Automatic annotation (TrEMBL):
It comes from the Bacteria. GO terms for molecular function: magnesium ion binding; phosphatase activity. Pfam families: Hydrolase_3 (PF08282). This is Cof-type HAD-IIB family hydrolase. One of its GO terms (cellular component) is cytosol. Transmembrane segments: none annotated. Keywords: Hydrolase.
Amino acid sequence: MSDRRVVFLDVDGTITTYENVIPASARRAIGQARSRGHKVLMCTGRSKAENPPELWSVGFDGMIGGNGSYVEVEGEVVMHQVLTAGQCRRIVDWCHARSHEFYLETNDGLFVSERFREASGPVLRAYARSRGTEAPEGAETELHGSVYGGELYRDDVNKVSFILSDYQDYLDAREAFADMRVGTWGGRGEKALFADVGLADVDKARAVRMAAEHLGVRISDTIAMGDAKVDIPMLEACGVGVAMGSGGEEIRAMADYVTTDVDKDGLCHAFRHLGLIGDPFLEN
């Protein structure tokens, strides 16, 4: 096994809390790991535009976005797969016909539907509550990178997320878009808050393998950390899989190591356990 490791980190619930707070210990641990020659990449469902400056300021060696539709390593775009203009139009028209509020995830912005701002506030607060945090009434819940009044028929879309009114909406979407990948997020099973629609052959596992190959690193020298069911493929693909303590039962059951919650220095403890850093509270 090489001394040089490549670490793929989910963002929400792994690097940040569900209120978008980055623990100081996580920031410090990522910096120390990189200073020791390890590569650290985000691997997230977010598209590039959704990452605020505070997250980028942590410092990363690349990003996998859109649940695997985009791979960027050390400033080079390795792969980028997007929905065709026809696929995007189908999804937009379907959402409009069913009165679903939605947003189109691109690397240049999150292009939101006409009433998304009003509809999303309560849903995003519920999302935070489902992960053990609480966004106060009236707190800002807007997604970073949101663009209002933009063109909704596009050819640069990584995936589309829409608000679920009930679980049947997800089942109907699976039927309507059988040629694409349809998932849920923001909750488990019938309590899910959002569904997303993307390309059928996109997932985090394929993306991490591409990034590792680009870096010339064996897959046995890779580490993945996450907290959600969508992260399981990348944990399975990597040499070591780490689940956050706040993660779901499925990901904790299959992980090689379970660390503490994100807001209890979970990322830092995992980095220390895996030998990526020294004692983070003693080293400068």
